[in-house]
């Protein structure tokens, strides 16, 4: 049952956004395994259940991602036999947008990159986001608090929150940059969620950022996002 103050139509928009973000994250993570050679042509893939655990995503989300990849002729799903990487997987992405050339990316490097991009995104979002986007953003922040208090996983909500800020910036270049780092953000969030009290701090920051954006305080939104990321970065560079 949905909680919060959104109208039913807005709730559906948020759920659609979260679902889209989740399976796009799964698709990118799977493609990254192919690009790095972890999965090779003809290999049998882990089960849907195993992938869901590995990617920290729901089974239905992973199943939807695999269905899309099958339509793209990247994987083959053979009922009763399993899933396989096709012998002739297509080029997955424009070579200029792959992360493969960057090698092994550390969590510190990712957080430093986010520190350069996301505070500006928050500022732009406060200036340019539509009223509907702002309402959805506040809903996601509230949902994250509820999920944390119940001891549940708020990974998908977290990803949707940051992606919505990017979309609210109304800057297609920065939106594209955020989508490029989405695959490695999956593993990064697994690590940051293990930091003591980080889940509580993150949910609190999300509420404050959402309020600043709602009130159109661009500089405050920027500073709060910067503080949020620096708090995580500080734990890894002590």
From TrEMBL:
<protein>
    <submittedName>
        <fullName>FCD domain-containing protein</fullName>
    </submittedName>
</protein>
<dbReference type="InterPro" id="IPR036390">
    <property type="entry name" value="WH_DNA-bd_sf"/>
</dbReference>
<keyword id="KW-0238">DNA-binding</keyword>
<keyword id="KW-0804">Transcription</keyword>
<dbReference type="InterPro" id="IPR036388">
    <property type="entry name" value="WH-like_DNA-bd_sf"/>
</dbReference>
<dbReference type="Pfam" id="PF00392">
    <property type="entry name" value="GntR"/>
</dbReference>
<dbReference type="Pfam" id="PF07729">
    <property type="entry name" value="FCD"/>
</dbReference>
<feature type="domain" description="HTH gntR-type">
    <location>
        <begin position="20"/>
        <end position="88"/>
    </location>
</feature>
<dbReference type="InterPro" id="IPR000524">
    <property type="entry name" value="Tscrpt_reg_HTH_GntR"/>
</dbReference>
<dbReference type="InterPro" id="IPR008920">
    <property type="entry name" value="TF_FadR/GntR_C"/>
</dbReference>
<dbReference type="InterPro" id="IPR011711">
    <property type="entry name" value="GntR_C"/>
</dbReference>
<keyword id="KW-0805">Transcription regulation</keyword>
């Amino acid at each position: 049952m949905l909680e919060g103050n959104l109208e039913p139509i807005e709730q559906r928009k948020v759920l659609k956004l979260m679902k889209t973000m989740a399976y796009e994250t799964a698709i990118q993570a799977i493609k990254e395994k192919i690009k790095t050679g972890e999965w090779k042509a003809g290999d049998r893939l882990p089960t849907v259940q195993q992938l869901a655990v590995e990617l920290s995503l729901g089974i239905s989300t992973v199943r939807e991602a695999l269905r899309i990849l099958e339509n793209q002729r990247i994987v083959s799903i053979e009922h009763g036999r399993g899933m396989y990487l096709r012998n002739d997987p297509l080029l997955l992405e424009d070579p200029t947008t792959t992360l493969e050339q960057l090698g092994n990316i550390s969590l510190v490097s990712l957080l430093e990159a986010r520190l350069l991009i996301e505070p500006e995104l928050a500022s732009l979002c406060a200036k340019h986001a539509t009223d509907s986007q702002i309402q959805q953003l506040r809903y996601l922040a509230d949902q994250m608090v509820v999920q944390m208090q119940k001891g549940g996983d708020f990974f998908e909500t977290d990803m949707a929150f940051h992606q919505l800020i990017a979309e609210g910036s109304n800057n297609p270049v920065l939106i594209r940059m955020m989508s490029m780092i989405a695959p490695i953000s999956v593993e990064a969030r697994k690590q940051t969620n293990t930091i003591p009290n980080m889940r509580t701090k993150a949910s609190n920051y999300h509420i404050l950022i959402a309020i600043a954006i709602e009130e159109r305080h661009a500089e405050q939104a920027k500073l709060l996002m910067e503080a949020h990321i620096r708090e995580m970065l500080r734990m890894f560079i002590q």
